[in-house]
Amino acid sequence: MVEGGSPIVLALFAECSWVSVSLSGAPIVLALFDKCSWLSISLGGAHIVLTLYDKCSWLSVSLGSAHIVLTLFDKCSWLSVSLGSAHIVLTLFDKCSWLSVSLGGAHIVLTLFDKCSWLSVSLGGAHIVLTLYDKCSWLSVSLGGAHIVLTLYDKCSWLSVSLGGAHIVLTLYDKCSWLSVSLGGAHIVLTLYDKCSWLSISLGGAHIVLTPYDKCSWLSVSLGGAHIVLTLYDKCSWVSVSLSGAPIVLALYDKCSLLSISLGGAHIVLTLYDKCSWLSVSLGGAHIVLTLFDKCSWLSVSLGGAHIVLTLYDKCSWLSVSLGGAHIVLTLYDKCSWLSVSLGGAHIVLTLYDKCSWLSISLGGAHIVLTLYDKCSWLSVSLGGGHIVLTLYDKCSWLSVSLGGAHIVLTLYDKCSWLSISLGGAHIVLTLYDKCSWLSVSLGGAHIVLTLYDKCSWLSVSLGGAHIVLTLYDKCSWVSVSLSGAPIVLALYDKCSWLSISLGGAHIVLTLYDKCSWLSVSLGGAHIVLTLFDKCSWLSVSLGGAHIVLTLYDKCSWLSVSLGGAHIVLTLYDKCSWVSVSLSGAPIVLALYDKCSWLSISLGGAHIVLTLYDKCSWLSVSLGGAHIVLTLFDKCSWLSVSLGGAHIVLTLYDKCSWLSVSLGGAHIVLTLYDKCSWMSVKRLDLVPKS
């Protein structure tokens, strides 16, 4: 408190300082926040507030009835002025300006967007809106009961006028014009398309539609309970008349006439096709259909619960009678007669084919089928849970009996007998062929198979996780044992023994042939193969990324080492040594023959080959587009140079020199013999004059 009674308040917080001074009724407040400063001054009827934020400044001034607010944002400025009944707001955004003016009963809004301008004016009962888009202009005027809208699109103009009870719409599209007039109870629509005009008139209870298409005219007249439709297509005329619930339809197609009459409960349809006539009569509960095809007549009569169908085909007659719960079908084909009778729970089918008769009887739970073929008889009887099938073929008899959980099958072929018995969890199969007997027994988790061939016996036993197979051939014995994931296979052939053991991640295979022994060991990532032939030993070792192969032949030793990007091959023949080294794309090959040494180096785009024969040296250098070859024979030296389009060849013989130059379209050859010189020029314009 200071002298005179004027209070001063000072507050210091951690992130805020605040000072309040009141002097003769005029309070002043200053606040300093972390990212905000705020000053408030009140004097008389005036009130001023200034706020400074991080990205925003705000000033509010109130004096009497006037109120002014100015706001400055990061990308937006806003000014609001209120004075009496007038109110003005101006807003400036990043891509948008907005001005609103309200004065008395008038209200004006102007908006300027990036690609759109909008003006709205409201005065009294009138309201006008004008909108200008990128490809569209829109004007709406409302005054009293009238409303007018005009729209101009890219390829479309639209005008709507509403006044009192009348409404008119005119639309102009790219290939279509549309006019709609509504006045009182009348409604008229006229549409003009590219290849179609459409007129619709509705007045009172009457409705008329006229549509002329490209190849079709359509007239529809509705008046009271009557409805008439006339359609004229390209190859079809159609008239429909509906009067007091009795519709009549007459259609004339290209090759077809159709007449439909409905009156009361009766309905008659007569159809005349190219090769078919069809008459349908429905009256009360009766329905009769008569169809006359080219080679077929069909009559269907339905009356009450009875239904009779008679069909006469070219080589087939068919009669079906359904009455109450009985259904009888008699079919007479060219070489087959078929009769089916169903009555209550019984169903009997008798079929007589050319060389086969078939009778099926179903009654209650029993089902009997007897079939007599040309060389085969078949009888099937099903009753309750039992099922018996007896089949007698030409050289085979077959009997199957199923009763409860047991199933027995006995088959007698010409040279083979087969018996299968299934009971509970057990299954036994005994087969006797001409030169082979086979017995299979399955019981619980065990499965045993014994096979006796002409020169071979085979026994397989499976129990739990173990599986043993013993095979005795003419010149070979073979046993396979699988126990807890470790399979062992031992095979003894006539001149070969073979043992395979797999345990965990390791796999070992040992093979002993007549003149060859072979051992393969795989463990983890390593794989080793050792092969001993008659005149050859071969060792292959693979570990990680490295691969080594050593081969010892009769007159040749061969070593291959691959590690990373390097690959080295050393070959020692009888009269030849050969080394190949590949490292990072640069292959080097050195070959030493009996009378010849050979070196090849490839590096980048360059390729060099040096060859030393007995009486000849040869050097080839290729670099870019250039190629040089130098050859030194016993009595001849030869140099060839190719560069771009030029090619030069120089040859020095014992008694002759020869030079050839090719450049562009020219070709020059100079030859110097012992007693003769010779020059050839291909292009005449290059021949010297003297």
Structure description:
With 690 residues, the protein is mostly beta strands. Among the domains are: 1-64; 615-690. It is built from no helices and 68 strands. The chain has a 68-stranded antiparallel β-sheet, with no helix packed on it. Strand 57 (566-572) and strand 58 form a beta hairpin. The chain is extended. The protein starts with 7 loop residues before the first strand and ends in a 9-residue tail after the last strand.
Describe the main β-sheet briefly.
Answer: 68 strands, antiparallel
Anisotropy-based shape: extended
Summed up, the helix count is: 0
Secondary structure tally: strands: 68
What share of residues are in beta strands?
Answer: over 45%
Low-confidence stretches: none
Helical residue percent? under 10%
CA-based gyration radius: 55 Å
SSE-based structural type: mainly beta
Q: Report how far the terminal alpha carbons are from each other.
A: 130 Å
Mean pLDDT rating: 85
